[in-house]
């Protein structure tokens, strides 16, 4: 069974991780791109896919992560393993705690 944890937004206090599963945050904007409400300007959604535990965790992260060398490594691995032709959140082949470490550096 695949587990999917939702972390719908980054609170203003800098705590990137929320443990609620309020799916009301995932209503879509009425726009051409159908971006979920929790993905604010300057952010994007990724899913950290831990194949070892068969678990996926969704994060909404700032664009500043695109400068982080480890995050760039995850992007390269994602391109190899999954490609970038899908819609929605980008899937990264990494454990959620690895992504949490990157976010704590920001």
TrEMBL record:
<dbReference type="InterPro" id="IPR003676">
    <property type="entry name" value="SAUR_fam"/>
</dbReference>
<dbReference type="Pfam" id="PF02519">
    <property type="entry name" value="Auxin_inducible"/>
</dbReference>
<dbReference type="GO" id="GO:0009733">
    <property type="term" value="P:response to auxin"/>
</dbReference>
<comment type="similarity">
    <text>Belongs to the ARG7 family.</text>
</comment>
<protein>
    <recommendedName>
        <fullName>Small auxin up regulated protein</fullName>
    </recommendedName>
</protein>
């Amino acid at each position: 069974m695949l587990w999917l944890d939702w972390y719908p937004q980054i609170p203003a206090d800098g705590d990137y991780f929320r443990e609620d599963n309020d799916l009301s945050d995932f209503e879509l904007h009425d726009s051409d791109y159908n971006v979920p409400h929790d993905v604010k300007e300057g952010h994007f959604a990724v899913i950290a896919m831990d194949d070892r535990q068969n678990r996926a965790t969704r994060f909404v992260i700032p664009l500043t992560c695109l400068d982080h060398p480890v995050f760039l490594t995850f992007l390269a691995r994602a391109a190899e393993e999954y490609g970038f032709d899908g819609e929605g959140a980008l899937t990264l082949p990494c454990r959620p705690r690895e992504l949490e470490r990157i976010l704590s550096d920001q």
